[in-house]
UniProtKB/TrEMBL annotation:
Domain G-protein coupled receptors family 1 profile: start-end pairs: 45-300
Record-level Gene Ontology MF annotations: G protein-coupled receptor activity; odorant binding; olfactory receptor activity
Lineage: Eukaryota, Metazoa, Chordata, Craniata, Vertebrata
Residues annotated as transmembrane: 29-52, 64-85, 105-126, 138-158, 206-225, 245-264, 284-302
Subcellular location: Cell membrane
Matches recorded under InterPro entries: GPCR1_Superfamily_Member, GPCR_Rhodpsn, GPCR_Rhodpsn_7TM, Olfact_rcpt
Pfam families: 7tm_4
Principal localisation: membrane
The protein, known as: Olfactory receptor
Annotated family: Belongs to the G-protein coupled receptor 1 family.
Domain of life per record: Eukaryota
Record's keyword terms, sorted: Cell membrane, Disulfide bond, G-protein coupled receptor, Glycoprotein, Membrane, Olfaction, Receptor, Sensory transduction, Transducer, Transmembrane, Transmembrane helix
GO CC entries: plasma membrane
Length: 321
């Protein structure tokens, strides 16, 4: 009898309910306008910096190409989250119904882009390491073909790995349909499982660990190693050399720290509030989602002087026109 009830409950779960907005409904217009302002700023600033990098031939260098790639990731991730949240807030819905496929599709996009952002930041640290610590070999090692290969690796590796995790998650039978989230993620989706699920359920924890190591742990370790080596070289060099080297690395370090901190706190918050999420936890989830996308173009547009100079010139010309 119990097995029959279990089968019935599994069959009944045909869609998921996201109730992360329920705690914010009393202030939904405040959150709507804050989110709308953030999204418009991200669209304008990211597009502006990417346009400047693409249109200025003197910026067609590896460091700026990687900056453009990181900002394109930010634009894509924003498009996967912001419009749906804005629509839900404007409609006044406390709960959002999504299909299994739509939920896993959003989770796939966000995990793939998040993983590729970490790998891109590792590639940027490698570029800075070679530029500062191996300047005589830099041109030979960081050729256009090498940059293209690195970009493909940064996007295809996380996409391939996350595809496997998403496929395994889709095989897990669900007994519950309510997620205390404002957007979907694979961890929360699988937490609704009944137990069982056969080979997919057994493989998913191990495979998820592999994906985390390949797309987060190893890139973070490589970034720390690269900037550690750069710091040692700067300590041994002249003051002018050290100042210039650290100035070029600072924007990348700031972006890395903000993205890593947001990701780490979001993962911790997700596990601590796997049940009903408090209002403070929901607000924190929003901030962690918005912060990296807003700060990235600010840091790269203001702190990277070559980009800032062209952005200022472009805005002055548009203003004069």
């Amino acid at each position: 009898m119990s097995s029959g009830l279990n089968v019935t409950s599994q069959a009944a779960v045909t869609s998921l309910t996201l109730d992360g907005l329920a705690h914010l409904s009393d202030h939904r217009w405040l959150f709507f306008f804050v989110l709308l302002a953030a999204y418009l700023f991200v669209l304008f600033s990211d597009s502006l910096v990417v346009y400047v990098i693409c249109s200025q031939r003197n910026l067609h260098r590896p460091m700026f190409i990687f900056i453009a790639a990181v900002l394109l990731n930010s634009l894509a991730a924003s498009a996967a989250v912001y419009p749906k949240l804005l629509s839900d807030l404007a409609s006044g819905r406390r709960f959002t119904e999504v299909s299994h496929a739509a939920c896993l599709g959003q989770a796939f996009v966000l995990y793939s882009l998040g993983g590729s952002s970490f790998v891109l930041l590792a590639a940027m640290s490698f570029d800075r390491y070679l530029s500062i610590c191996r300047p005589l070999r830099y041109a030979a090692l960081v050729s256009p073909a090498a940059v293209a290969a690195l970009l493909l690796l940064c996007w295809l590796l996380p996409t391939g790995l996350v595809s496997g995790a998403t496929l395994l998650a889709s095989r897990v039978p669900l007994c519950r349909a309510r997620l205390s989230r404002v957007y979907c993620d694979i961890y929360s989706f699988v937490s609704l499982g009944c137990g069982g699920g056969g080979v997919a359920a057994m493989l998913l924890p191990v495979y998820g660990l592999l994906v985390s190591v390949a797309t987060v742990v190893l890139p973070v370790g490589f970034v720390l190693f690269s900037y550690g080596r750069i710091l040692l070289v700067c300590l041994r060099g002249s003051r002018s050399f050290s100042s210039k080297a650290l100035h070029t690395c600072l924007p990348h370090l700031l972006v890395f720290l903000i993205f890593s901190l947001s990701t780490g706190v979001e993962l911790l918050q997700r596990r601590l509030h796997s049940g009903g999420e408090a209002t403070a936890a929901s607000t924190l989830a929003w901030f962690l989602m918005v912060a990296p996308t807003v700060f990235n173009p600010v840091i790269y547009g203001l702190r990277v002087k070559e980009v800032f100079r062209h952005v200022r010139r472009l805005l002055r010309c548009r203003g004069a026109g």
